[in-house]
Amino acid sequence: MRFEAIEEGARSISIGNVHIEVIPPKWNPFVEPATHVVIPGNHVLSTYGGAEFLEDRAFFTRSLTGEAVIYFASEENLSPITPEQAESSEPTSKSELFTSATAKAQSEEIVINSGDILATAIYLVPRYENRRKTLSDVNSKLKSTVESANLGVNIAELRQSALEAELLRLEELKKSAQEQSTKKNGKKESKDKKDDKEAPVQTNQTSNRSLFEEELKSDGKSLFSDETDTPDLDAGKKLW
Q1: Predicted TM-score (pTM) of this structure
Q2: What is the pLDDT of residues 53-91, one digit of tens each?
């Protein structure tokens, strides 16, 4: 048992990773303040009018005592798992409250989580009263809350929602990868077509140059010489 001193007029208290805070109304001063118990990364249920597990927080009593909180890690207990993990998992608790039906494969890659829930319960009771009685009263509240709320169905719904969200995320990633691949292939095809258009021009230039050289070799005459081998002497005299 752990004792925590609460200063008079205090609006919040922290016990480990559990934070309880009284939040006054913003606009209407005649409205009762809301009190939340906050446990990040967990699903939380309190005996103060709770009927289902809520993500990260739950409503709590303004007096901060006389109630209980039960919570479990969201990622570990709700997230989908692979078929290999489902086959190798060993149940560690036989609690009737948290045992759910056998999982069925939802896809080739992941399946709905079907392991037992490992939860933590905190009883908050006044220090200077009959602790045995107050603990018994809070325990009765917790038992009544568990029995009145169909938590097996609640957890099954949470796990199904987690599976659907993960499948949607994987589908979005797959779609994004396909779009990136399509864009990459489109750029490659465009570059190949451009190279194909430039290639014939280079071949024709080489071919024309080769024909020109062959003509020079086969003729054996200068392009700037006369057709006759005998020079025109008169023409030379006229030039000078």
Answers
A1: 0.63
A2: 999 999 998 888 889 999 999 999 999 888 777 666 655
CA distance 235 to 228: 14
What is the 3-class SS of the chain, one letter each residue? CCCCCCCCCCCEEEECCEEEEEECCCCCCCCCCEEEEEEEEEEEEECCCCCCCEEEEEECCCCCCCEEEEEEEHHHHHCCECHHHHHHCCCCCCCCCCCCCCCCECCCCCECCCCCCCCEEEEECCCCCCHHHHHHHHHHHHHHHHHHCCHHHHHHHHHHHHHHHHHHHHHHHHHHHHHHHHHHHHHHHHHHHHHHHHHHHHHHHHHHHHHHHHHHHHHCCCCCCCCCCCCCHHHHHHHC
In the chain, where the domains are located: 12-173
